[in-house]
Every structure is written in structure tokens, then in C-alpha cells.
Amino acid sequence: MSRWRKAQQLAASEGIDTLLITPGADLRYLTGYTALPLERLTCLVLPARGEPTLVVPALERAAAVASGVDIEIASWKEADDPFALVASLVGDVAMVGLDDHMWATRVFSLRDALPTAQQVLAGPLVQQLRIRKDDDEVAALRDAGLAIDRVHRRMGEWLRPGRTEREVGADIARAIIDEGHVTVDFVIVGSGPNGASPHHEVSDRVIEPGDPVVVDIGGTTALGYCSDSTRNYLAGGTVPSDYLDAYAVLEAAQQAQRDHARPGVTAESVDAVGRAIIDEAGFGELFIHRTGHGIGQETHEDPYIVKGNDLVLEEGMAFSIEPGIYTEGRFGARIEDIVVCTADGLEVLNNTPRGLVEL
Ligand code: ZN
Ligand code: ZN
Ligand code: ZN
Predict the structure, then answer these.
(1) What b/e readout covers 45-57, taking b as 16+ CB neighbours within 10 angstroms?
(2) Of 77, 177, 273, 287, which is the most exposed, with the fewest CB atoms less than 10 Å away?
(3) CA of 185 to the centre of ligand 3 (A)
(4) Which CATH number fits domain 135-358: 3.90.230.10, 3.90.550.10, 3.20.20.10, 1.10.260.40?
């Protein structure tokens, strides 16, 4: 059954009459159409029952057809009111589910065009589908994992003392494309004290011998699936001994989390087993973020591996396991793998060495 038909069934069961999905990851997931987020309205009108329509500007019609969508396309001309067109397709309904990432201007235009329909979010419904990857999606994530692992294996070509994080990052970005991605989504090269900021990107800081360097990188492959992996490097010199103490604890915590994660355990329990080890060693205050995030056509999506998320993991759920320890002003370390729940265990999609890599 197509994804949009499954979404229809869910909408029917939740009492949402029509889903209205604008360009973004949910539209791509449901239809395969990667629409540009333009000022002209593109919107999938997906009723709980009956046939859907993809509303597109006339000048985007060819692109929509070329994407191979198996949905009737209705196009509107420059002087037409696309919201009136959507309203005519929706009809007289009680509840519409709007794309989570719909522009606020459109939310208000749809409120005016459909004044009696209650607006709710469509995202939680679509996430119920996106959160369980099918075999093709797992294969695509596996490929993405292999591609980013190839980049990590080449780190010695670029990461050297005397070069700036920015120079190293530019080389990494080229390699992310060369090794099998179509976009570079992020490049974090956090040397020395910059490693203590989890979302530091790059700077003009010159890498010195003895700096631990956090490298967290990811891209999107041609199939539309994302990679994301973090490793830690040393380019000459020796790291402080308290760094090595913290690193050993981090490795043990991340390993324990990979050993624990499987169908049937909760998302928050994966966070808890790693956090307990880091707490026990006295570094608890320095593990300042959740353990991980789901990944698929977006780098960050459900399920979030965080305290308070009692979601029970199931086969096909893919997410990161990425505990970190951050000592402000000195250094940081994070080990990150993407994993996917199999029928009875866990497949780890990143498999380069997890210890501190001396280049
Ligand atoms: Zn992050
Ligand atoms: Zn991540
Ligand atoms: Zn990452």
C-alpha cells in the first residue's frame, strides 16, 4: 500500500477529514515529490476517504509530473486564488490536519478559506509512519552510513596541526559529496576548547598538537536519506590525562547504550543506561544533551532518545546514539553512531573505530 494510502487510514481513524501537506519532508515522504518551498502554493490535499489531489502552480506542473507522483495534479494559474482551489477540493469538513512546517501565512489563508474547519497538526500522524523504516529505507540509511564512514576513514588526509578548522571542514565537505552524498548537511570540526560546544561548526582556530578534535558530519544521499556520525581525533601531541579518563567513560557509556537498545525497550531507557555510567564516574553534569534523535529523510526526527520519552522501540526505528562529555574552555568528546532496530536486536550503521583516533 502506498504511503499516502496508509496516511489516509490513519487520518480516518483519528477523525481528521483532510490532510494538507506543503513542501517539505512529509510531502516528499508521502508522494516522492521534492517540491521547492516557493511563495506560490503547492499543497497535497489528502482526504481521509476518496482520492487525493496535488495542487501546484501551473509553472511547477511539469516538475511535479516528472517526479512520478501517482496522484491527480490540479494546477493554478498566476491570477487564480490557490486557497480557493484547495477549499473547493476539501469541501465542507470539520477538521483539517496541517503540515507541521507550513508557513504561518498559509495557515491563516487556509483558515480564511475554510472558516469552519478546525485546524490540527498533521505531523504527529505522518510521524507514526515515518518512524518505522521499511526495508528499502533501512537499506538507504545503511548506504548513507557507509558513505559517511568512508569520509571518517579519510580524516588523516586533511586533519593536521597548523590548519584551521575551516580549512579542514572545507575538505571534509568535498569528501562528503565525493563519497556518495548529494548535499552536505553539516560539518562540525571542534578542536580543543571548541569541542566543548556540541553544535560548534567550524572557526578560524588553528588546530594544535595535543588538541582533541570532535568531528561530527552528515549529508543526504541521492535516495534522500541522511547520514550523521561523530568521531574524535588527535593530530600529533598528547591529550590531557583527564581527557582520556573522560573518554574511557564515554566509550563505556556508548557501548552500554548500543548493547541495551533493541525492540521492546523504551527510548528513555537507552538514554538512562548511558547517563548512569557517566553520572557514576562523576561527569553527569557535563553530559548536557539527550542521547539521540531519529533519522531518515531528515537528520532530526522521531524518535528522540531522551528522558521522558516512554515510546517503546520497534523494528525499523532508526536513531542516533551520541552521548558526549563537555568540559567548557578545555575540550569535549562525543561518539555517535546511527543504529536501527531489527526484529530482535540492533544493527549499527556506523562502524569506524570509536576510540580516540590518532592520525
Ligand atoms: Zn546535534
Ligand atoms: Zn546526531
Ligand atoms: Zn551528529
Answers:
(1) bbbbeeebbbbbb
(2) 77
(3) 10
(4) 3.90.230.10
